């Protein structure tokens, strides 16, 4: 199955609780460890730090995500698709990714995190709009309690859409 992943969302834990100076130092060290890990397995990448997240740009996102699960300090990673932050772009990219993973009869859920609180819709409104479009497109069933596939949407300067989370 070929998916259009072009990024990895890296989530870290305790570092976020530190003061600004210590957090910056710890984030820099984590980024260095991430680069070392990916260089050791031959994965080309570019690291970006944005608002409490580390984002990797790479054409080998799934492999990178699995490799990073062994790096100390990482809570989880998700291979993701990068898109613009308009409702139309998010909808189109969500449907593209859903077509790869969600089929008729599959139970799914959409979960949105708005890092950009100026976005015109609430997380619940986005979940509803995207979920309804996927349901109509694929014939799948919405199940918020026990989904087989969770489609995550992380809205920031850009938007990142993912369908799996690899524990760290």
Written overview of the protein:
The protein has 168 residues and is of the alpha+beta class. The protein has helices at residues 20-40, 61-68, 87-101, 123-138, and strands at 7-12, 46-50, 53-57, 74-83, 107-114, 141-142, 149-155, 159-162, 166-167. It folds into two domains: 7-80, Alpha-Beta Plaits (2-Layer Sandwich); 83-166, THUMP fold. Strands 1, 2, 3, 4, 5, 6, 7, 8 and 9 form a nine-stranded mixed beta sheet that branches. It is built from four helices and nine strands, in the order E-H-E-E-H-E-H-E-H-E-E-E-E. Helix 3 packs across helix 4 (123-138).
What composes the largest sheet? 9 strands, mixed
Give the mean pLDDT: 93
Number of E-type strands: 9
Helix content: 25-40%
Number of helices: 4
Summarize the structure.
The protein is of the alpha+beta class and 168 residues long. The protein folds into two domains: 7-80, 2-Layer Sandwich (Alpha-Beta Plaits); 83-166, THUMP superfamily (THUMP fold).
């Amino acid at each position: 199955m070929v998916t259009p992943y072009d990024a990895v969302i890296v989530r870290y834990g305790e570092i976020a609780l530190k003061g600004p100076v210590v957090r910056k130092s710890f984030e820099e060290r984590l980024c260095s460890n991430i680069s070392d890990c990916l260089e050791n397995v031959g994965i080309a990448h570019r690291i970006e730090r944005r608002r409490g997240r580390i984002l990797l740009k790479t054409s080998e996102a799934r492999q990178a995500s699995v490799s990073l699960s062994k790096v100390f300090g990482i809570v989880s990673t998700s291979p993701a698709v990068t898109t613009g932050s308009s409702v139309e772009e998010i909808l189109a990219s969500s449907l593209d990714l859903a077509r790869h993973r969600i089929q008729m009869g599959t139970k799914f859920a959409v979960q949105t995190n708005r890092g950009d609180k100026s976005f015109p819709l609430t997380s619940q409104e986005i979940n509803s709009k995207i979920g309804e479009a996927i349901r109509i497109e694929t014939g799948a069933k919405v199940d918020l309690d026990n989904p087989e596939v969770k489609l995550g949407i992380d809205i920031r300067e850009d938007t990142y859409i993912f369908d799996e989370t690899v524990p760290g």
